[in-house]
Amino acid sequence: MASGSVAECLQQETTCPVCLQYFAEPMMLDCGHNICCACLTRCWGAAETNVSCPQCRETFPQRHMRPNRHLANVTQLVKQLRTERPSGPGGEMGVCEKHREPLKLYCEEDQMPICVVCDRSREHRGHSVLPLEEAVEGFKEQIQNQLDHLKRVKDLKKRRRAQGEQARAELLEHEYRLLARLEELDLAIYNSINGAITQFSCNISHLSSLIAQLEEKQQQPTRELVVWERILGSYLPDDCPPPTDPSSTGGDFLGL
C-alpha cells in the first residue's frame, strides 16, 4: 500500500465525523460508530431517550455510550507520528533547529527526533536512541495493531447483535406457535362443552318423556302401577350415554 494511502486511512480512522478533527475522548455507540464526547454532548443535549447516532442516524431507546480507549491510543500515536515526521522539501530529512543537522535519530525517553549532535549532548546522553526510520516503522506497527483490534471489536459487536436479533426472531416464532396451540385448545374445549350440553339435553328429553308417561299411568289401576315400578327400576336409556367431563379435554389435548 502506498504511503499516501496509509496516511489517508489513518486520517479517516482517527477523525471525528462531526467536528472533522482528531478524536478527543472518542465514545463508541451501540451502532459501532465513534464520536467525540463533546460532539455527542452538543448533538444530544439533555436528551436521555430516543437519541440517534450523528453519523448513521440509527435511533437508540436510551442514552448509552462508552469510552473507546483503543481508538484514543491510535489517535494519539497518529498525532505524535505526524508531529515528529520529517518535513524537509522533496521528502528529505528534517533539520535540527539547534545544530542544523538532519534529524536521523529518535530519542525514546524524550519521544522526539534528534540529530547525531543531539545524541552526543548531555541532554540525551544515556538515552535509548533508534534510527528515525525504525522508530517510524514501530509507530506504524503499533497503529496497525490498534486498528486491527478495533476491527475485531467491531466485528464481534456485529456478530453479537446478529445473534441477538436471531434469538429474538426465534422467541417470536415460539410465541406464535404457543398462541396457535392455545387457539386449538380453546376450540377443543368449546366443542367438548357443546357435546356435553347435547347429551344433557338428550337425557332431559328422555326424563320428560318418562314423567309424562308416569303422569298418564298414575290414573291407571294399582296393579298396573306395580308393573311400571319394576320397569322403571331397570330402565336406562341406551342411546344417551353419561356426559363426559369437559375439564378433561384440555389435559388430553396437551398430553398431561
From TrEMBL:
<keyword id="KW-0496">Mitochondrion</keyword>
<keyword id="KW-0479">Metal-binding</keyword>
<dbReference type="InterPro" id="IPR020457">
    <property type="entry name" value="Znf_B-box_chordata"/>
</dbReference>
<keyword id="KW-0963">Cytoplasm</keyword>
<keyword id="KW-0175">Coiled coil</keyword>
<keyword id="KW-0808">Transferase</keyword>
<comment type="pathway">
    <text>Protein modification; protein ubiquitination.</text>
</comment>
<dbReference type="GO" id="GO:0003677">
    <property type="term" value="F:DNA binding"/>
</dbReference>
<feature type="domain" description="RING-type">
    <location>
        <begin position="16"/>
        <end position="57"/>
    </location>
</feature>
<feature type="domain" description="B box-type">
    <location>
        <begin position="91"/>
        <end position="132"/>
    </location>
</feature>
<keyword id="KW-0539">Nucleus</keyword>
<protein>
    <recommendedName>
        <fullName>RING-type E3 ubiquitin transferase</fullName>
        <ecNumber>2.3.2.27</ecNumber>
    </recommendedName>
</protein>
<dbReference type="InterPro" id="IPR017907">
    <property type="entry name" value="Znf_RING_CS"/>
</dbReference>
<dbReference type="GO" id="GO:0005739">
    <property type="term" value="C:mitochondrion"/>
</dbReference>
<keyword id="KW-0863">Zinc-finger</keyword>
<dbReference type="Pfam" id="PF00643">
    <property type="entry name" value="zf-B_box"/>
</dbReference>
<dbReference type="InterPro" id="IPR001841">
    <property type="entry name" value="Znf_RING"/>
</dbReference>
<dbReference type="Pfam" id="PF15227">
    <property type="entry name" value="zf-C3HC4_4"/>
</dbReference>
<dbReference type="GO" id="GO:0045087">
    <property type="term" value="P:innate immune response"/>
</dbReference>
<comment type="similarity">
    <text>Belongs to the TRIM/RBCC family.</text>
</comment>
<dbReference type="InterPro" id="IPR013083">
    <property type="entry name" value="Znf_RING/FYVE/PHD"/>
</dbReference>
<keyword id="KW-0862">Zinc</keyword>
<dbReference type="InterPro" id="IPR000315">
    <property type="entry name" value="Znf_B-box"/>
</dbReference>
<dbReference type="InterPro" id="IPR050143">
    <property type="entry name" value="TRIM/RBCC"/>
</dbReference>
<keyword id="KW-0833">Ubl conjugation pathway</keyword>
<keyword id="KW-0238">DNA-binding</keyword>
<dbReference type="GO" id="GO:0061630">
    <property type="term" value="F:ubiquitin protein ligase activity"/>
</dbReference>
<dbReference type="GO" id="GO:0005634">
    <property type="term" value="C:nucleus"/>
</dbReference>
<dbReference type="GO" id="GO:0008270">
    <property type="term" value="F:zinc ion binding"/>
</dbReference>
